[in-house]
Amino acid sequence: MIKDIVKHAFSFILFLLIQVLVVNQIHLGWVVNPYVYIAFILLLPIGTPGWLLLISAFAMGLGVDAFSNTPGMHAAASLLIAFLRPSLHRVMIPHDTFQPGTQPDVATFGLAWFIKYVVVMTMIHHTAFFLLEALSVEHMGVVVLKAFASMFVSVLLILLVQLFTVGSTKRR
Predict the structure, then answer these.
(1) Nearest 10 degrees: CA dihedral of 103, 109, 111, 117?
(2) Cross-referenced InterPro entries, in alphabetical order (predicted)?
């Protein structure tokens, strides 16, 4: 129990620092804004209590907002995916493998499942974020372009992080 709390607290800090100190400093034009920090929310164990999931997502989003000059936008988009995550798990995870405490990652469910999961959740997050940024559906073309371009890069970065961590876990 304590070991899990420490592990997730470390993961929270690590993803926040990676986002703020590394990913936010990568400038890929006005269209692409990758957000790797959402992997923290996506990788929390299945069956994480809803209140803890929402508080963790809000804190992560608020942390990124504090360093990104985006007042509440990351917090709102993160809350949305945290809210939808349990429902998506029920739809995407085969019932025979749906066990509370299971990590929704490549090692547990395979690469194809993980890519689908990350793409869906990242697209929801990015669409919500860029809609909040635009504050209008009038610029829906730009929102969709930014959401897809950013989602593509974010998914690639999340996969790299996941494959790196799965590889290091297997070597132990």
Answers:
(1) -70
(2) Cell_shape_determining_MreD (IPR007227)
